[in-house]
Amino acid sequence: MESPGYRKLVVWQRSHAFLRAVLDAVKDFPRSEEARILKTQLLRASMSVPANVVEGYGSQRGRNFTRHLKLSRGSAWEAEYWLLLGFELRFLDDPVYRKVHGLCHEVIAILTSAIRKQES
User: Fold this and answer.
1) Residue 2's pLDDT is what?
2) CATH code: domain of residue 79
3) pLDDT of amino acid 89
4) DSSP for residue 29
5) What's the whole-number average pLDDT of the chain?
6) Are 4 and 12 in contact (CB under 8 A)?
7) What is the pLDDT confidence band of residue 16, given thresholds at 50, 70 and 90?
8) Residues sharing a CB contact under 8 Å with residue 19, sequence separation 6 or more, in sequence order
9) Contact assessment for residue 42 and residue 83, using Cβ atoms and an 8 Å cutoff
10) What per-residue confidence (pLDDT) applies to 4?
11) Taking a C-beta distance cutoff of 8 angstroms, is the pair 72, 80 a contact?
12) Which residue range is the domain that position 41 belongs to?
């Protein structure tokens, strides 16, 4: 069976890697209610990034694809905020935060480039 075409997109590959890094990072969150809420929000936003790329890809590209890329970028920025808060609250240690934060900004840059390409 051939893999779906969206898997060939760099934007999906990097956003999927970002999500996997987030999934690993939140495994060590404390068991407090505050940490549970933040973890839920971070996971929701992070999962939306590659999911919106896939949804847009499946919608026959064009303007709808661009709209989904923009939604994906918005979710990546939201995840960036939750990462910052998790770091400030000491739920993420410095090396983990730097790794995941770096991946997040890489994804935002790739999404921005893909959006510009679609709009030109």
Assistant:
1) 61
2) 1.20.1440.60
3) 97
4) -
5) 94
6) no
7) very high
8) 46, 47, 49, 50
9) yes
10) 78
11) no
12) 5-119
> Do residues 72 and 49 touch, judged by C-beta distance below 8 A?
yes
What total number of domains does the chain contain? 1
**Which amino acid type is present at position 106?**
E
CB within 8 A of 28, min separation 6: which ones? 96
Which helix (H) or strand (E) element contains residue 56? helix 33-58
Q: What share of the chain is helix, strand, coil (3-state, %, to 5)?
A: 85, 0, 15
Cβ 57 vs Cβ 88: under 8 Å: no
Q: Tokens for 99? A: 């790794």
Q: Give the orientation angle of helix 62-88 with respect to helix 10-25, to 10 degrees.
A: 30
Token pair for residue 102? 């770096």
Closest to 118 measured CA to CA, from 11, 18, 13:
11
- The string of pLDDT tens digits covering residues 29-39 is 999 999 999 99
| Residue 1 binned pLDDT confidence (cut-offs 50, 70, 90) | low
- Inter-CA distances, 114 with 20, 24, 61, 65, Å: 21, 27, 12, 10
Phi (first) and psi of residue 60, to 5 degrees: 70, 25
